[in-house]
Amino acid sequence: MTTQTVTGLKGKHLLGIADLSAEEIGLILETAEAMKEVGARPIKKVPTLRGKTVINLFFEASTRTRTSFEVAEKRLSADTLNIAASTSSVVKGETLVDTALNLEAMAPDMIVMRHASSGACHLLARVCKSRIINAGDGMHEHPTQALLDAFTIREHKGRIGGLKIAIIGDLLHSRVLRSNLLLLGKLGAEVWVAAPPTLMPPDVERFGVHSTTSIDEAVRDADVVMMLRIQLERMQGNFFPSLREYFTVFGMTEERMRRAKPDVIIMHPGPMNRGVEIASEVADGPYSVILNQVANGVAVRMAVLFLLSGASEGDQL
Amino acid sequence: MDAARVERTIARIAHEIVERNRDLDQLALVGVRTRGVPIARRISEAVAAITGTRIPVGTLDITLYRDDLMRHTVGPQPVVHRTDIPFSIDDRRILLVDDVLYTGRTVRAALDALIDFGRPRSIQLVVLVDRGHRELPIKADYVGKNLPTSPRESVQVRLAETDGQDEVVVQEAHA
Fold first, then answer.
1. I want to staple A125 with a disulfide (CB 3.0 to 4.6 A). Which of A132, A181, A297, B1 is the partner?
2. A290 vs B67, higher pLDDT
3. d(CA A154, CA A152)
4. Per-residue pLDDT band at A170 (split at 50, 70, 90)
């Protein structure tokens, strides 16, 4: 695998892949390799973040990401607090900044936040002294998802540069797509994106990717196929006639998978809509690494928590 | 110490291990990254040359167990590498191997890390160089060479596997 040329992260927060260099991404993935081994031990815990407090502040629904961060924090011995918006004073009308400043008064070291508004983490990073980790902000970025996807691809393919990677589904509403396009571009993959015209972001080609409305063209000879969820909760208006019709034209089936390379892997960030963007036989098929992605998420988040817990250039001493 | 001296020292440690341990098949070597690992491998080879028994070798990265990680107010975190112990340490007699024994803090971290992998019958400490100045109550069982130093000096162990050639040098530390 690659050898690092950097020994730390420049920023004190992880707000998006946009802020990371290829070398910093490499360092996170290498560190995650070591963290994955910790998860395979009889005692899956190291004392590294003992005495550190991490607040998981989730303003949007999440199973995987929140649990994954919490497991990662516990494996590093941090003290963790979970706050869901539905049970917090947000329902009483408190603003995001006030909520954050009040939490900060209790001196946490890091805040992991998911929020429905793009840029919410950047706002928090400006007003808070704690390290901020973006666990998904609106339709903007979801950096740890892209990092765990990259880790999973590297684990199966040994590299990322030069691979043909097809990303298919609801591209318009996807923060996973944006983070992945930034990351895969920095690491030199050949990326194809496919979606109905109504779900294709208008500016997608500025990421240096090939875009098509033909799923078959995107999948042809692909090394990796990444399916994205149809995000009905973010759709205002009709983007396609029906879920059944969407599946007929853009759903991933076994027959369509045959156009990819024989050793293709299929990925999905979850939660899956079986029978909408992906057929059950594909999701559960031998080439599926969907549950590996979940397992790797813990290792990648441990790496991010560890690397951000060090001092950085911008610190006031 | 030059290359020949390093080689003789490792051979002597291997002989001492054979003398002091009756059941060689209950032993396992665990090298502390970075330079404890090639030393552990060489000891394993040397013991195999004497007795025909090959002692398994594991690799331990102690970064996540360091006691100074969260105290540094400047600088990034050190790079973490994989730990790889491909055998159960339960009820084994572990030989923990490092290049230089100094304050004892690395050994403390290594002991904590090892114990998270199971409950060995015993742990013995093997070091190529003991330079003194302990800050914790830790003592080595096998010492290649006692090297009296001042705290202002630094002891560099260089090995063919990691540095191109074998040697041990004492330098005046740069501030």
1. A132
2. A290
3. 5
4. very high
Contact B72 A35 (CB under 8 A): no
Q: Regarding beta strands B57-60 and A110-115, do their DSSP bridges make them parallel or antiparallel, or are they unpaired?
A: unpaired
Which residues of chain A does B78 touch, with a Cβ-Cβ cutoff of 8 Å?
7
Among candidates A9, A47, A306 on the partner chain, residue whose Cβ is nearest the Cβ of B80? A306
Spatial contact of B110 and B96, defined as CB atoms under 8 Å apart: yes
Q: How far apart are the first and last CA of chain B?
A: 24
Residue written as tokens 């040994």? A158
A48 contact residues in B (CB cutoff 8 A): 64-65, 69
Complete DSSP assignment for A2-33: ---S-SS-SSSSB--GGG--HHHHHHHHHHHH
Give pLDDT tens digits for B45-74: 999 999 999 999 999 999 999 988 766 555
Smallest Cβ–Cβ distance between A37 and the set B78, B79, B83 belongs to B83
Give per-residue pLDDT as tens, A69-123: 999 999 999 999 999 887 777 778 889 999 999 999 999 999 999 999 999 999 9
DSSP code string of A226-266 = EEE---GGG--S-SSS-HHHHHHHH-B-HHHHTTS-TT-EE
The mean pLDDT of A61-76, rounded to a whole number, is 95
- What are the residues whose beta carbons fall under 8 Å from the beta carbon of A249, sequence distance 6 or more? A196, A215
β-pair partners for A191: A165
